[in-house]
Every structure is written in C-alpha cells, then in structure tokens.
Amino acid sequence: MTDDASTGFRPTGPAGVRGETPLEMQDPKTQLGRLLAASVAHKPFSELSDVTFHHRGAELVGHVLLDTVEEAGYTLDDFDAVGALTAAAVPLVTSMITAAASRGQDLDGFVMDFVYPSVKGPSIKGKRVILVDSWLSEKSYVQTSSLVTLRNGNELSLDFGIVGNEGAEVLAVAALIGGPFDALKVIHPVTGDETDLPFIRAFDEDELRAEADDAADDAATNA
Fold first, then answer.
1. ∠154-36-218 over CA atoms, to 5°?
2. InterPro entries attached here (predicted)?
3. Which of 187, 220, 183, 222 is nearest to 72 (CA)?
4. Could you give the CA distance from residue 20 to residue 26 in angstroms, rounded to a whole number?
C-alpha cells in the first residue's frame, strides 16, 4: 500500500471506493456528464428528459451550456436569447435563462414553432440568438414537424426563414450532446440557400457513449 502523494496519508476503505469523489463534490460538468452517461447507456437516442427535468440536472444543464458557449467565444454580452429547436430543448432554454439570471444577466428564450411558422416567446426582433437542442450528431435523428432533420452528417434542413422573418440574427447552434463536427450547413428547404453556422457541443457523443456503456457493463458484472 502506498501513500497518497497529495496528503501523505495511506488510502483506507474498500479498494473499489478509495479516492472516489461523491457526485455532489465534483465539478458541474463532471456531475452532468455522469447523469447524461446514465441516460444514454445502450440507447441509440434519448431526449434526455430524465436529466433535463431532474432537480439537479436542470441546474447543471443551464450553467454548463452557458460555460460551453462562452468557451466557444460567446459571452452573455454577445447574445440576447436562446431558442429551442425541438420540444426536447425547451427545458434547456429554461435552464439557461435561470442560470443567466443567477449570474446577474438577462437572457430571453423562445421556441421554434414549425406548425404555424413563428416563434413562441418574447419578440426576438433585432436580437442575437443561439439555437439549442438536446442531441445533434451524425448518429442521432432529430425531427420537429418534419422540418428539422439532421442528415448527411452535418446538414440541418430548417426553415431558417422563421428566424429571419422575426428579425433576429442566429449566431450558432448548440447542443448538450453532439457529434464531432464544428459547423452545421443550414439549408433553406424552399430556396435551397445554404448558411454555415458554428456548432457548439457540451459533450462529445462518442466519448459520452463509451463512458456510459463501460459503466453499464461494470454495473451488470458487479450485480
């Protein structure tokens, strides 16, 4: 048995739990990653509702997404609103608004409405916005009223005119879980016009899935 170099003391307790930091004492992104890993284990796709509506998960989601977009170059001074691409993203928007308020910043939210082309929420006229979703990757299939579909790896077919007609500027698309690409090609389904937008992901899908499957396998082995 060797001493812990950081403390000078020998580790004690069962070998399986030595040095394991309780979830609530880990940094927010690590905490959220563990919750998400449990949600996606051995699943082809998940709307992540068991995390985004979780009492702790909801708080973590807001702060981690704000931190992630800031690391990508967008501080709370750079955008005015966040918009949900799908129903699964609505709790993400709420969490980000709440997290921003706790930091003393005002942030509006809205939902893309593809049935009656418009947005639901405060006016976004003249605002800079970031669109968000729960999971966007090459392996996930995301659809809202047949108008939002991730296809061919990184092309997002979206009636982008909805946001433009509201007088807003889209800065980027962000997802809680995402694929390995750094940009999305947004294609207007009517005109065919293409726009490249930065893509920001809080967690890489492959890394998170590998972690999730390993944890699930270990749990099954130890059961």
1. 115
2. PRTase-like, PRTase_dom
3. 183
4. 10
What letter represents residue 61's amino acid?
V
User: What residues does each domain of the chain span?
Assistant: 27-222
Which CA distances in Å does 73 have to 68, 69, 78, 98, 198? 9, 6, 9, 21, 11
Into which CATH architecture does domain 27-222 fall? 3-Layer(aba) Sandwich (3.40)
Reading the block at residue 103, the tokens are 């930091």
pLDDT at 34: 92
pTM: 0.81
Gyration radius of the chain's alpha carbons = 20
- In sequence order, the 6+-apart residues with CB closer than 8 A to the CB of 37 are 208, 211, 212, 215
Cα three-residue angle 169-201-38, rounded to 5 degrees: 140
